[in-house]
Amino acid sequence: MGYWKSKVLPKIKKVFDKNSTKKGAAAEACKSFDDSKEEINKEFEEKKAELQPKVIEIYEASSAEIKTLVKERNDAGLKKDSADVQKFLDELVKIEFPGSKAVSEASTKYGPALVSSPVFFVFEKVSTFIVPEEKEVEAPPPPPPATEEETSGKEKGKDITEEKAVEEKAETAPPEPPKVEEAEPPKP
To answer: Residue ranges of the chain with pLDDT lower than 50?
Structure first.
């Protein structure tokens, strides 16, 4: 058993854990990015006014998948659309968006899925420029407040019977026959 643990098992792990070095390096890149978040936030606040039109332009030109990811950040979408995410990050680097260069470099080396927290941080900053779209379907207006005055049981009973009588009259009224105009027969 000692030979198995000391010689064979490490070689098997080495074969199957090729991504372990990549994951470790990606974790290190995430940690260094987390350390620089304060500086990125300060730079972001300073450049906010000049970045807004550029970011909106890039956002509008991006695919629907990227727009969804910027609004609703999730790992599954990040893995699925990693090529689009990389293109979007590259566009942000071109306009010198704060933090995008480091995230883009890490994303290029390790893939967006392994450096998801820095990518989502940048997407969060981008989403501050995006105006939330209003839903076109408006909620129905609230019903008017029901203010019933307390009345005696006799008066309520009279109201209910009067309403039933009105409904019965409406139901028993004969429907008006539809007006039919006679059409002239076609002339030969």
So the answer is: 133-142, 148-156
Cβ neighbors of 44 (< 8 A, separation 6 or more) are 51, 98, 99, 125
Which uninterrupted H or E stretch holds 25? helix 19-35
Distance CA 143, CA 106 (A): 55
The two tokens of residue 124 are 């969060």
- Give the separation between CA 10 and CA 50, rounded to whole angstroms: 54
Helix, strand, coil tally for the chain in percent (to 5):
70, 0, 30
Burial class (CB in 10 A: 0-12, 13-18, 19+), 33: buried
Beta-carbon contacts of 109 under 8 Å, excluding residues fewer than 6 positions away, are: 25, 26, 29
pLDDT, tens digit, 9 for 90 and up, residues 11-52: 887 777 666 677 777 788 888 888 888 888 898 888 888 888
pLDDT score at 28: 84
